[in-house]
Amino acid sequence: VEIDMTLTASVDEVLRAKDFEQMTASELNSARAIVGRLPLAIEAVKTRRFRAARHGERIDLRRTLRASLRAGDMIALAEAKRRVAPPPIVALCDISGSMSRYARVFLHFLHALTETRRRQGQRVSTFVFGTRLTNATRALKHRDVDEALDLVGREAGDWGGGTRIGAALRDFNFRWSRRVLGQGAVVLLITDGLDRDDTGALSEEAARLARAARAVIWLNPLLRYAQFQPKAAGIRALLPHVDRFLPLYNVNTLAELSQALASAGRRSHVSGRRAA
Predict the structure, then answer these.
(1) CB 169 within 8 A of CB 205
(2) Residues 258, 42 contacting (CB under 8 angstroms)
(3) Which of 10, 160, 213, 220 is the most exposed place for a label (fewest CB within 10 A)?
(4) pLDDT value, residue 261
(5) Reported confidence tier of residue 78, pLDDT bands at 50, 70, 90
(6) How many C-beta atoms lie closer than 10 Å to residue 192's C-beta?
């Protein structure tokens, strides 16, 4: 029996490669289900804290002194080595009109990531912005993803409006940075980079963000165009301050992001201009 498979492909493969902007409502629902099942393993990195070890990197002074209270003249030196844990994830997601559909699907990804990291006792912080910054971390902790996204929409009154990336980054840097960027957090910046404000201020705030984070990964749906060039002033202001510059427009690009996050602990030190 001969079967002609020419020009045939599974529905799942077609859906994975299709642009979110071109999907119907039913296709978006199917894509969100796929996104929720993406593997989300993130490589562990060394932290500043230490734990007891048989062959450690340093002397554990506390355990040594405690043991000396029970010992005689000879004191056995206790050793310790650094703890390892996946770095915290901080997401800054643009919900303006040009990013609305991409933002909704990406928030599904963040909801799955938040649930996975919560079970492991690890932290994911999510902020959304259009003309102002909104902390959506608590909303995305809701078990039901649809109710979580509805709550984010109610809390962020500027969904689908304009964009002020520089002002949002400044608000984050001065109000939230010290709270959530500890322990070498990795920042996911989701925006097309089309800002209406002064790009000088945007560059300054992006540089401040990069200094505080272990790595900044910029996800931009405009990279779906083969002829993309970083001509917009906002894009040129952001690029020198990011470590990775990746596309975000379909399920396959989100799968690539999952792989990038798996090694996000090793900061690349590659400028955004080279990465582009």
Answers:
(1) yes
(2) no
(3) 10
(4) 74
(5) low
(6) 21
